[in-house]
Design brief:
Elements lengths: L1 H48 L4 H4 L14
């Protein structure tokens, strides 16, 4: 009976942790979409203005830091 109680408690803890992970994944997805949008806006600005964008000014050109698709 004690073993069943331990398993029940573990199941509750794992369910809580799963909810936390799912919430964090959702937040990460939102942040990725925002970053993608900002990178697209920067590219559009760069093309329209004919100047270096965030990637160049932040030194991210070589590693693609401002472009989440390159991660």
């Amino acid at each position: 009976m004690a073993h069943r109680s331990e398993l029940d408690a573990l199941a509750v803890e794992l369910a809580k942790r799963l909810q936390e992970v799912e919430a964090e994944r959702e937040e990460l997805g939102i942040a990725e979409r925002v970053l993608r949008r900002l990178a697209e806006q920067d590219r559009a600005y760069t093309e329209a203005a004919g100047v270096g964008g965030l990637e160049e000014s932040a030194g991210g050109g070589a590693c693609g830091a401002a472009d989440p698709a390159s991660w």
